Amino acid sequence: MASSTSLTLFFFPFLLLTLSHAATFDVVNQCSYTVWAAWADTGNNGGGQKLGKGQTWTVTVNPGTPRARIWARTGCSFDANGNGKCQTGDCGKLACTSYGSPPNTLAEFALNQNSPPYYTNRDFNDISLVQGFNVPMDFRSTSSSCSMDIQCTADVVGKCPSKLKVTGGCDDPCTIFKTAQYCCPSGSSCEPTTYSKFFKSLCPNAYSYPDDYNNTQFSCPGGTNYKVTFCP
Residue 124 sits in a domain of what CATH number? Predict the structure, then answer.
């Protein structure tokens, strides 16, 4: 991942799109509080939905989508036109068409990707904390052909370093300090830091900094369906 505002995952040059069925993502809120779920891709597609405890929102994403994410927003208030603001994960409106602002725990994915001869018609998935953490998350497949299961369920907010603590979450160091060490400008590489090691120690299968490729990328056959659970 080249920066805290780009996706963390798996992109190789000359990826080709493959025609396939759209993927469904069942987004479930198991938190004791209301969240405003959101999804968006790099093509200005997306949406949002208010979810009380136990409610589910099903999102359909086009086949061949190269970069997209699902996340929870907290502390939101919207007017009758769907415009408003959230404490975490804010995109400025109920139905997001752009990515949210940190801190937000991210389920990231690319669908039906191809790079012969290395792979054909593969989905790539991860959970990322590069933009910080706001709610615990479980991201798994619901298809028998794939056993992918990624979790970040630790008490990250409760254990958050004091310099990263913000209302409703644990922010990322790039947002707080705005230095190349933490932000990994495009075209550069970066190393683990004290803060990234904190995130990694609590959620070892999630991205902890832009160049974290240690057991963070997961793959399923194209056409797989998924479930994203907040506060599993």
Answer: 2.60.110.10
